[in-house]
Amino acid sequence: MKRHRITHTTGFHYEGEVNASYNEARMLPAGAENQFVLSSFLNISPMSSLNTYVDYWGTRVSAFDVLSPHRELTLTATSLVEVRENTHRAHPFDWAELATAARASMDTVDQVAQTSRTTPPADVAALAAEIAASGLAPCESALAICLAVGEAVEYMAGVTGVHSTAAEAWAEKKGVCQDIAHIALGALRSVGIPARYVSGYLHPNPDAAIGETVTGESHAWVEWYCGGWRGYDPTNLIDIGDRHVLVGRGRDYTDVAPLRGVYAGPFGSELFVNVEITREY
Predict the structure, then answer these.
(1) Residue 227 region, left (φ>0) first, then alpha (ψ -120 to 50), else beta?
(2) Cβ–Cβ contacts within 10 Å for residue 225, how many?
(3) Cys bridge to 186: 6, 120, 200, 278, which one at CB 3.0-4.6 A?
(4) Mean pLDDT of 60-80
(5) Going by DSSP bridges, is the β-strand pair 2-18/269-279 parallel, antiparallel, or unpaired?
(6) How far, in Å, CA of 126 to CA of 132, rounded?
(7) What domains appear along the chain, each with residue ranges and CATH number?
């Protein structure tokens, strides 16, 4: 078990004074089977109103309006979370059982269809189909697909943008965790394996000293269903463990974007992000 303190600061610099802004934040970790949230709070500056709720996908949402003129919007989410190492249980579903189960529950049926971000190019679908036809069970096939995607795409910031699709990132064979997760999701769904996008944080150092604060990451990985949900980090080619802190789940990045909103004013805006993580135990 590890205990992490996470400070995630983000917001917008506006090029001039805007009259009002209307925003949603998904930055606070959620309780999960292997994750216990000891404390979490969100500071917003400036702020005039706040409404919190849990969305359809189970993610904590902070919706707020700023109705006075402002040149900058800053959010700081501070969380203390205990994370236990995951035990990946065997899931003995065969392909026929998976097909039946995928149609039987809202947890899975919503995660079978492609989105505009995850729709795979033909060669990705062909790669997934070849693995699925190799004789492996669905869970083992899903892991092999994620490994193949992660090995084929080089992690490189600046090549893609926040609105890039799986097909665009695959064409470059480069991207960030968001892109690699989208490609993996498209590949999994193309062979009938329900799969969902997961957003959260990753401590970059498996041997971090207690009390040391490091620059962390806002991160993305995937989960697939094969009789139970199984997570994997295709960007780093590792299982989900006690360095991963879950914030939200959805069909793709659109469902779990940390901050989004609209504003009234003639000026442009620039997003800023900083994540710091301290291992406290």
Answers:
(1) left
(2) 25
(3) 120
(4) 97
(5) antiparallel
(6) 10
(7) 2-84+257-279 (2.60.40.2250), 95-199+219-254 (3.10.620.30)
Give residue 98's pLDDT. Answer: 96
- Region at 166 (left for phi over 0; alpha for psi -120 to 50; beta for the rest): alpha
Residue (of 241, 156, 152, 258) closest to 205 by Cα position? 241
Unique residue bearing structure tokens 């959260």: 200
> What is 178-215 written as a DSSP string?
HHHHHHHHHHHHHTT--EEEEEEEE-S-TTPPTT-EEE
Report the half-sphere exposure of 56 (CA within 13 A, side-chain side). Answer: 6
- Name the residue type at position 163: H
**pTM recorded for the entire structure:** 0.96
* Closest of 141, 129, 127, 237 to residue 181, by C-alpha: 237
Instruction: Give 153's contacts (C-beta < 8 A, 6+ positions apart).
Output: 169, 170, 173, 174, 175, 179, 180, 183
Residues 6+ apart with CB under 8 A from 244: 83, 200, 201, 202, 219, 221, 231, 233
pLDDT digits (tens, 9 = 90+) for 99-133: 999 988 888 999 999 999 999 999 999 999 999 99
Contacts of residue 271, defined as CB under 8 A and 6 or more positions apart, other chains included, come to 10, 11, 12, 259
Among 254, 197, 202, residue whose Cα is nearest residue 221: 197
Burial 169-188 (b: 16+ CB within 10 A, else e): bbeeebbbbbbbbbbbbbbb
Q: Tokens 């999701």 map to which residue?
A: 185
Contacts of 61 (CB under 8 A, 6+ apart): 24, 25, 26, 52, 53, 54, 55
Average pLDDT over residues 66-82: 97
Dihedral Cα 272, 162, 222, 237, nearest 10 deg: -80
